[in-house]
Amino acid sequence: MFTDRLKELRKEKNLTQKELADMLMLSKNSICEYEKGRSEPNIDTLVKLSEIFDCSIDYLVGKTDDFYLPQYSAANDEESLALSDYKKLPDDMKKHVLSTLNLLVKYQKNSR
Question: How far apart are CA 37 and CA 43, in angstroms?
Answer without folding.
Answer: 16
